[in-house]
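Q: What does the assembled structure look like for these inputs?
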Amino acid sequence: MSESLITILLIAGGAFAAIAGIGLLRFPDVLMRMHASTKAGTLGVGLSVVSVAIFFKDDLVTTKVVLIVSFLLLTAPVAAHLIGRAAYRTKTPLWEPTVVDDQRDQSEKP
Amino acid sequence: MIDQETALTVAMTLTVVGLVCACIRLIIGPSRADRVVSLDLITVLLVAIAAQLSLLYEVAAYLDLGLAIALIGFLATVAFARYIETAPHGKTPEEEPTQLTSTLQSVKAPDDQSVSETP
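A:
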């Protein structure tokens, strides 16, 4: 039972990690690339680490796994927000077909 | 149902595929923010690699490595985000030469000068 669960978690985690990398490579825009790397990457790592906790069935290991997952979930939005703000303020070009940019519209108002 | 070792091999291969994609994005840029994002993803994926190593060798101590990488990676990302926000940027990111092209230019530069200086 636990072995099949570990198998599923491992493959799902690896697949999400690969999806994050491919998304980072293929998306046309900094913000879209951040969307791929932050969310899919965090989920992939979380699944991989949880499979370790199920494998060892140890209190200390489980504590460390909970620490890693909670830390990743806490810091990923903060880091993404900081990078996104820096990218926007340094006027990194958005994707060509982008139509709505509320921040720019607001700052251009008289 | 595939057994656990095969699943571990598949998972490590997929994670390395993600790492290679992130490294390609780190090299080709084009802006500084892209490079910071790819560095962020690389540190996050290294935590997954550490977890898979602890399954491979059945040593739980590799999780400590993952925890340390997660802690340091966040600080590195914050520092790089502050850097690209405050760094002087006279050129737009597209015009910014990559490390390789600037190195090539600095290698080529003395030749051009010697050619132009000789009457």
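Helices of chain B lie at 4-28, 32-57, 62-86, 99-117.
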